[in-house]
Amino acid sequence: MNASVSQKFAQDDVVYADANDFRCLIGDYSDRRALLATDASVDEENKTPLPADIGDLCRLHRLVRSRKVTTVLEFGVGFSSVVLADAMRRNRDEFAKQIEANVLRRNNPFEVHSLDANAEFVELWRDRTAHEFEGLLYYHESACRMGEFRGRICHFYDSLPDICPDFIYLDAPSQWDVEGDVRGVSTRHKDRVPIAADLLAIKYFLLPGTLILVDGRGMNARFLRDHFKRNWRYRYDQDGDVHLFELVEPPIGDRNRAQLLFCLGQEWLSDAESIT
User: Fold this and answer.
1) What is the homologous superfamily of the domain 3-273 according to CATH?
2) Could you state, in order of their start, the residue ranges of all structural domains in the chain?
3) How does pLDDT run along the chain (276 residues), one tens digit per residue?
């Protein structure tokens, strides 16, 4: 991507953020280039939340709004939790009548469930947002431990929120928050990366239409892609360094079909129903 296009995208993000009152949510917008020049994300001693990345936050907000997402599972608390909750609040204000009229059967409608292994970060963000997003944003803390998936070394959280999300954001755990080792191998070596396998464990609980966004974490995305079954459509956005997995399958029943039609539209549904 050339500099002029990159600058345009940045300007578009600022316009979108301003239109959606991001400054009230996250304060001043940080310079993405300054953030990427640091190694804070791989610093074991860092206890300060990373600055807000306006491009990443706009992407999340746009996706949740444009896809009329009803339930979010987020791995990793932070500014993203706040922006996702705001998008969910807007979806609730606009689409709650469909839930009330039983057009969509969703048992955790317009909720964001954010999971992290770092107790300090969970408490920090819970304190910051306890009142503003009551009934919208739920924080969960769980230990994360090394394990295996089909003989491949990886890691799992001990406990996941008991929900059925239609949008999943994977941006945790930190490599330093994973406990234990498998045959001496752990993520706590600075040259290693996190390899989360939680989504593989629940893949058959996920409904058609589910979208997963993996933020960076290229090795983790490759691991998931190698082991996912079902008809996941994969796309890598190199400019944003994000990996997208979308579950494109025929609906599993009338309720799921109604949700797909309402949230994603007839064209998406017709494409999914053509898959045999």
Assistant:
1) Vaccinia Virus protein VP39 (3.40.50.150)
2) 3-273
3) 333 444 455 779 999 999 999 999 998 765 544 444 445 555 666 656 667 789 999 999 999 999 999 999 999 999 999 999 999 999 999 999 888 887 788 999 999 999 999 999 999 999 999 889 999 999 999 999 999 999 999 999 999 999 999 999 999 999 999 999 999 999 999 999 999 999 999 999 999 999 999 999 999 999 999 999 999 999 999 999 999 999 999 999 999 999 999 999 999 999 999 997
Buried residues in 19-39 as b, exposed as e (16+ CB within 10 A):
ebebeebbeebeebeebeeee
pTM of the model: 0.91
**Which residues of the chain form beta strands (DSSP E)?**
71-75, 111-116, 137-141, 144-149, 152-157, 167-170, 178-179, 211-215, 232-237, 242-247
What are the structure tokens assigned to 41, written together? 């994300």
Following DSSP, what letter does each residue of 46-106 receive, concatenated?
Answer: --SPPPP-HHHHHHHHHHHHHTT--EEEEES-SHHHHHHHHHHHHHHHHHHHHHHTTSS--
- What is the identity of the amino acid at 263? C
Strands laid side by side in the 178-179 sheet: 152-157, 144-149, 178-179
Tokens of residue 165, six digits: 């999300």
Burial 67-88 (b: 16+ CB within 10 A, else e): bbbbbbbbbbbbbbbbbbbbbb
The enclosing H or E element of 193 equals none
